[in-house]
Amino acid sequence: MTAAVPVVDLEEWQAAPAEGRARIASDLDQALRDSGMFLLKGHGVPREATDEFRYWAKKFFALPREVKSAYSTEAVYDSGWLEMHPPGGVGVPTTDGVEAPDSPDLHESFYVSPTHRTGRPDLDRIYYPANRWPRELPAFRRAAEAYTTHMVRLAHDINEMFAAVLGLPEDYFTSLARQATWTQNASWYPSLNTVGEVASGQLRNGPHTDLGTFTVLNRQLGVGGLQGWNETDGWFAPPYDADAFVVNIGDLMELWTDGRWRALRHRVLAPSTSAPDEELLSLVFFFETDPETWVEPMAAPVGGGRGLAPVRSRRSILEKLGVSFDPARSTA
Predict the structure, then answer these.
(1) What is residue 253's predicted lDDT score, i.e. its pLDDT?
(2) If you average pLDDT over residues 5-16, what whole number do you get?
(3) Bridge-partner residues for 9, per DSSP?
(4) No. of helices (H) and no. of strands (E), the chain
(5) Dihedral sign for Cα atoms in the order 4, 10, 11, 16
(6) For residue 228, what are the contacts with CB-CB under 8 A and spacing of at least 6?
(7) Which of 98-102, 157-161, 172-176, 320-324 is predicted least confidently?
(8) 302-306 contact pairs (CB < 8 A, 24+)
(9) Alpha-carbon distances of 292 from 20, 123, 126, 264, 314, rounded to whole Å
(10) How far apart, in whole angstroms, are the C-alpha atoms of residue 32 and residue 212?
(11) Residue 148: which of 208, 85, 79 has the closest Cα?
(12) Residues 331, 122: contact at Cβ < 8 Å?
């Protein structure tokens, strides 16, 4: 049995009459309850913007290590380049400690943050860390900024759709995401021939859930690619469509819906001996909400009735990353 991962056409959704929306909403709601993911078409993001960002990201990852290291992240929530790192991602806790090996995940990443500012340097450092753009590749910055402009617009469209599916006012989520924290990630998964060998249990990205409200993924199809998990199917390979993004629910949205929707547990398989030259590059947009939003689980019947505890948006994410920070006690 293969997990049901619906394909939602955003243009169709936006133009649909009430009956058509009800059908789409029912399928989407069920998928988010079961696995926490769907495919999104009709998103209006030009293929050229995606291709350009991926092209220049590959150029960056191909630079010598000593060049890339000038743009290294300095904290787990930071922007810039991250070398191959311990299991679970940038300090992101794994959801399957048994499967997590002692070897690092087999990928490099480059992180981009929004340019919002609060006027308080202490808050800005932790809410909106400054970007580190490689001077050697000015086109990389232009491509990343163009792509993330599309992602922010798309995130608001998705938030409006989610609100409608839940029977809430259309601006329920968008009104709390005017200065949202987010991270745009380019992740390079090198080939088996590049890494040389793979340790037992080692993956390109260990099992985890994302920390924010939702994630928008542009991926490449590969043997050592993405897998999701649900209780019915276990690990499964989601369908691939070159014209569609994968959208998956994160921890904050699972909490916000009080467990009605499930944060997708997922992983990226190790490079395979059957495709030793395969390398993949994913563009991953992690969206959250305004950093000081009080995320309070929705009451039933909208919420799932799990009785989860409310959290402060950005603070809850930082705490999962091992960062202890209280904005109320911080001074400029």
Answers:
(1) 98
(2) 96
(3) 41
(4) 9, 14
(5) positive
(6) 3, 5, 35, 36, 37, 235, 236, 238, 248, 264, 265, 266
(7) 98-102
(8) 302/166, 302/167, 302/168, 302/257, 302/260, 303/257, 303/258, 303/259, 303/260, 304/257, 304/258, 304/259, 304/260, 304/261, 305/258, 305/259, 306/258, 306/259
(9) 36, 11, 12, 24, 6
(10) 15
(11) 79
(12) yes
- Is the pLDDT assigned to residue 314 strictly greater than 70? yes
| End-to-end Cα spacing for the chain | 55
Q: Residue 223 CB: number of other CB atoms within 10 A? A: 15
Interstrand relation of 214-218 and 280-287 (parallel, antiparallel or unpaired): antiparallel
- Site of tokens 């590059």: 281
Q: Where are the domains of the chain?
A: 7-323
Question: In the chain, which residue ranges form alpha helices assigned H by DSSP?
Answer: 10-15, 18-34, 47-61, 65-68, 121-127, 138-165, 192-195, 251-256, 313-320
DSSP E strands, 197-304: 205-208, 214-218, 226-230, 234-236, 245-249, 265-268, 280-287, 294-295
DSSP designation for 230:
E
Q: Report pLDDT digits (tens) over 175-188.
A: 999 999 999 999 99
Reference 81, options 185, 6, 193, 206; nearest CA is 185
List of residues 6+ apart from 248 with CB closer than 8 A? 36, 37, 210, 214, 215, 217, 228, 263, 264, 266
pTM of the complete model: 0.92
pLDDT tens digit sequence for 83-107: 875 444 444 445 554 444 457 889 9
User: How buried is residue 282: exposed, middle or buried, by Cβ count under 10 Å (0-12/13-18/19+)?
Assistant: buried
β-pairing, 205-208 with 214-218?
A: unpaired
CATH class of segment(s) 7-323: mainly beta
Q: Which two tokens mark 236?
A: 């499964």
